[in-house]
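Please think about what follows:
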Amino acid sequence: MSKKTYIVESYDPATRKIERVTVTHEVYNAYRRSGWNIADNNQSFFKHEIQMSSLIGGEDGGYDNFREFIGDPEAVDNAVAERMLLEALYKALDQLSESDCDLIRALYFEGKTLSEYGEEKGCAISTLSERRKRILRDLKKVLKNFAE
């Protein structure tokens, strides 16, 4: 009896690409159900959004007056600032050479140590440490310019 292969597409934030992943039947079913739920939720949201626009203050952006819709205004501001910083970081990472980006991805996205990466690539830890310091210094400059 042949075993069926189940494949889903998933976004990998480290590579910023859609990846095809082989999963179990249970994961595949849950993944498909979540897609249906998202479609249902979107339809429900838009249905309710139209009703929401009829509230007083909805026409001129006055939703700020409805404090029950806003949990913590600072949390929203912080989330937006964090998202903008992450976008700037990804843009800065795009400017790195392929080998520098590979080092940063291995250390900070894949959780490898300098010694693990050094063994894998045949590089001295001291060389990798200096490269990492230079890369982080350059990234810090780019992000500092973003903040200004």
